[in-house]
User: What shape does this take?
Amino acid sequence: MSQRTLFDKVWDLHTVRVLPSGQTQLFIGLHLIHEVTSPQAFAWVHERGLKVAFPDRNLATVDHIVPTEDQSRPYADTQAEEMLVAIDRNCREFGIRLYQPGSGKQGVVHIIAPEQGLTQPGMTVACGDSHTATHGAFGAIAFGIGTSQVRDVLASQTLAMSRLKVRRIEINGTLGRGVTAKDVILHVLRVLSAKGGVGFAYEFAGSTIDAMSMEERMTVCNMAIEGGARCGYINPDATTFAYLKGREHAPSGAAWAKAVAFWQSIASGSDAVFDDVKTFAAADIAPTVTWGISPDHAIAIDEQIPDVTAFPESERPNIAEAHQYMGLTPGQPIKGLKIDVAFIGSCTNGRISDLRAAADVIQAHGGQVAAHVKAFIVPGSEAVKAAAEAEGLDRIFTKHGFEWREAGCSMCLAMNPDKLKGRQISASSSNRNFKGRQGSPEGRTLLMSPAMVAVAALEGAVSDVRAVEAKVPAAKVTVTKALTAKAATARTMRAPAGKRPVRTVATKPVTRAKVVGRKAGKLVVKSAKPAKPAKAVKAVKASKAAKAKRQAKPAKAKPAKNQAKSKPTRKPAAKPVKPVRRALRRNGLK
Amino acid sequence: MSAIISRIAGRGIPLRGNDIDTDRIIPARFLRCVTFDGLGAHAFEDDRQQLARAGKQHPFDEPRFSDGIVLVVNGNFGCGSSREHAPQALAKWGKGIKAIVGVSFSEIFSGNCTAMGLPCLRISQADADAIQTAIEADPAVEVVVDLNDLSVAIGSQRWSAQLADAARKQFLTGQWDALGELVDGLPQVKATAARLPYLNAFAS
Ligand code: SF4
Assistant: This one.
């Protein structure tokens, strides 16, 4: 049995008592609620004449069923409308905060709680949604529950749970160019299988994980459930604390130091004992794509569809079924497979850094969405949408032929109008490639990173993002080198040998950009054509803290409904040029 | 206290295949509802239709299995989405699935089943195969699932099964619906809340 791991410490701290069955009655520090798995639970609480025990420790939003195009109420879909009415009524009856569309705080439940600083290290988090594992990125123990358990948490703020075993998954080294957190987790799933984690909590660790931003860590933990692990977590560190600082619900003032001390104390100790340890090398991970009907049916972009003989006997019927459903032949390369739809979004990859990554690739590529492809980008929350629009990402997307939508789960699952048709193949940044998952009973899903989806949309077929990254004009590298020289003392620029090459995010030819000076420790680069500076301006922040701060600080969210109107008012930045906050977030530039 | 569940006996439904996820058990479009009523009719809807189009039949559509109450599956059954709609759909299908026997189950799925009073027993791959074959050979056989001695039996054949101690106790003592017990513990719950640093020392 594991000892002194974060899991053990958090579990013990939240243990109310041992139940006669031998299960633990576990206190839930944060209960997140959405419209799909809660109405029956509220009805049961109501029927039994019970109350919600700790309304303040509950937060509700709507995400699964909300349309991402026309959000005017009542919704065209009467069932969806009924669900919205139900959650509104239930939250009022029981005194629970509800973030509705238009509040500026609505979004996919697993995106908004971290964004607002609600998810914190050392907490237990539960939600009627399997991807609750996402919150483990903060060093919380977070798991998905069913509706009966949603009822239990509402009425008692506790769950009857059996302790899990703890497996440490250690990933070390520097990720190659074009390799993202999504590729890391798809690779881990491929190796450990979709059921390898049943009975376990996954602790992700190692230098690769340490170097990741909070958003990248969320992507990794999000998909722990696809490996069968009920929860995944990462020990909190300076990156975690920097992300939390200043967020709406994070501790502040004198409480901050106390919080950090507690957060540090709950990390797995150097003397922690694990039930199992698996190690991976970052160097072995390539951009990864799924080809089948389970998230562990994953291969590197330059591999071929595997034959049944590559799998153990018991798996072969499934593999054959996957070949048949997907219409793919063993030996066929995945690269070059034509796609019909491209979707960027979801709780796995619908955060601001994901949208930035997509925008970078789109600009490096420079082309338009292929004529036969429908491509759309759905921000994970209203705050992400506002941040993306403030940076001009929406205009990059629409200019290159992508649709830009309102926040929601969208085509991650088929509960809203965004759906595949017939046997369409979608390149998707979501988390599940199950049969029928994206809305058509015969629809086919290829999971990949947002950058890979973007390039697939532009090429019209599954492609290697590294080929596009290689196309980044040499001029950009030159400019960056110039920056490096000027910033010889700046810690950000001391990328050790072997780290990923520096890549700028300039959208205009970088020959226009030049370093204009240094402001408050920041290098400021200015476009030679100030008429269009908003996109051409680049800045490099020097300190690690600054880097952490850049991780998707909640933008001042405007109500979604006003956003369309507010678009034309975004103006190019006036002089003096303000540093653009999207920039060097690659691990190599930390 | 809920009903004591110790023995389930009735016809079986064999459903072969690993990694059958909850999106397949109940496709997401049927989750647009505020009650679980009526879900039964849509269990495996897409899988059933797809097989029908290919001129085949899903076990849930085969008349010979239509009285089945014991579902016999393979590995990682119920993986994916946490939707309780999945076991609810199974419990409301036909005569209602009353027990599931399989090689392994996703944690959330089996937890949901336990909370509904639907035991999920684990058996070996070879035994799952043997039971599925026996039911296919004679769908009228009675499959007996016994939680007292943790076994599955058909006639004189008997296979040993596993069920977590906690879940077994919950079924045998009629405590599978945990709510009453959890609510009884509220005074201790409050005491626990009072010592959590994030609700006290640095509450925000
Ligand atoms: S984005 Fe997808 S996986 Fe995440 S909560 Fe929504 S439907 Fe579930």
